[in-house]
Amino acid sequence: MRLLRTTSQRNATLDRPYVWEGAVLRADPAWARQNLVRVTLPTRLPLAWNGAVLVASVSFHRLLAHQLRGVLDDLLRRELWPLFHTFSGSYCVRRVRGSNAISTHAWACAIDFNSDTLPLGSTWKWPTKVIRCWNDHGFVCGQDFGRPDPMHFQAVKLFEAGH
Q: d(Cα 142, Cα 120) in Å, to the nearest integer?
């Protein structure tokens, strides 16, 4: 198991997904080609900001795809998947909103759901069994961040395939 809690840990394990052009943060296309895979969602979800668009799969880091597939399968098996009603984003090279820190979405190790009803700063809490399911697969939810972000789930541990 490898930790993915800091920028240096993510860069060491997942490689650096961005380049700097002066002070501008940009996606590294070579990194994307080498590291992004598609993970199919249990059911198609409407895009949070355009409900006419249905999302069937998401981009995620190849080393973490098995963990995302595992948590999605568990949510479906435990009949918790219906709580996830819109897809709100995964891979995106950008900074954390309101910060200079690089978002975990840049490494394709984070995914957002339900941003239309769970905006940044919302104090709503997921049921414990949902959080436990994500935790079992090496993810944390942003609902307990200093600035709550309950739509957000990010991998903080990389498990070997088959874990």
A: 9
CA distance 70 to 39: 11
Tally of structural domains, the chain: 1
Q: Is residue 56 within 8 Å of residue 41, measured between CB atoms?
A: yes
Is position 61 within any domain? yes
Tell me, what CATH number does 142's domain have? 3.30.1380
Q: Residue 85 sits in which domain range?
A: 2-158
The DSSP result for 24-88, as a single string, is EEEE-HHHHHHHEEEEEEEEEEEETTEEEEEEEEEEEETTTHHHHHHHHHHHHHTT-GGG---EE
pLDDT tens readout for residues 66-85: 999 999 999 999 999 999 99
Residue 5's Cα: distance from chain center in Å? 13
